[in-house]
Amino acid sequence: MAGVRIVVCGAGIGGLALAHALSRHAEVVVLERDATAADTGGYRISINDDACRALATLLPAALLHEIRAVSDTGTAFEQFTIADPRLRPIVVAAEPPGQDRILAHRQVLRVLLARDIAATIRFGSTVRTVAQDRHGAAVTLTDGSQIDGDLVVAADGADSAVVASLLGRSPTRDLGITGIAGWAPLGDAEPPGYLRRGPALAFGPDGTAVFLSLHHPPHPSAAHPTIAGLLGEPALIWGTITRSSRLTLPRNAPAAALVPQAAALLDRWSPWLRERVSGSEAPRTAAFRFRAADPDAPIAGWTPGTVTALGDAIHAMPPTGGRGASTAICDAADLARALDDHRRGAPLAEVLARYQRRLGPRARSAVRESLGPLRVINALRHRPAQLLARPLIDAAGACGAWRYADQR
């Protein structure tokens, strides 16, 4: 693809991984609205077995090795736990043996992915629209400037401006659910033992859930100077999930107001959890509304031309399934292979059509899985369901705590 310019709209995990692969054979321009790669929530990204294999095809081996060195691997995700509001385990599901898994610090991962291709990234560039014809595509930014390319890839996340330009509407819908996520110092209090073997999702009978994961930073000597200061101390990464209507704060509430709001949601929960959340660092706390694509609608259903898409830009999903980043990475690997076929002579429209058809089954499965926990939360918005759920959750937690007492 010598002499070909590919414009990637969005410097998220999928867009940056794709840019690494494409820059071997083409001119790549990455457009990103954030001012720097570090301007992102510093939460946890789960990269599954398929996505780990995909990263090995997209990234230089040395970079992937560095990502592993500063992430949690191995025993950090041996199992996934469903717990009750007192953090007693209800179900502990072991991960299949032999699975490769990376639990990465989102901010650190993004900084590393951007570091070696910094010259291709134009930070502070917000996409407004995109137009295509048989010769290429043109991206118009909010400042009125225009960037032309032979191919444009939408990697600009949920509510993608690029995909909306093609479809005439947003490719996602607001689910009426809001997450508040943050970092809490662990202190001297011992966390539930099951968290040392993997993340957990705890459900309350009032329609609130909490995602929990432990962060174990590597020794500073293992980290490149550009990220050493981002790794922090051992911490609990938490994320409350509740109906947007339950929150008392405006949509753009300052970070300092989010910690007490999250703590208020946990009034009847585990005292250990309430104390950790109440002591969280306000600058590392953020709120975000959950959006998702319709898994029963066409995925990337437009006729391929000179614009395509990957990740949340075309099949957004809530973080409750832990599949978003992995699916975007697998999309990037599939698209890179398709463009390799184009470089060898296959028509662009043909390889893009094949790529977009391939997205469907994987994307639908991931979106449906991610929507599952939200159905529980939505079901518990009704008072009769809440009254029924409380004793059932308490009983299940008590039974689970007895069975898994050796893990606490």
Automatic annotation (TrEMBL):
GO MF, one term, reads: monooxygenase activity
Organism equals Actinoplanes xinjiangensis
Q: Which Pfam families match?
A: FAD_binding_3
Q: Does the keyword Iron apply?
A: no
Transmembrane feature ranges: none
Instruction: Write down what this protein is called.
Output: 2-polyprenyl-6-methoxyphenol hydroxylase-like FAD-dependent oxidoreductase
UniProt KW keywords: FAD, Flavoprotein, Monooxygenase, Oxidoreductase
Q: Which InterPro entries match?
A: FAD-bd (IPR002938), FAD/NAD-bd_sf (IPR036188)
The residues covered by the FAD-binding domain are 5-166, 302-369
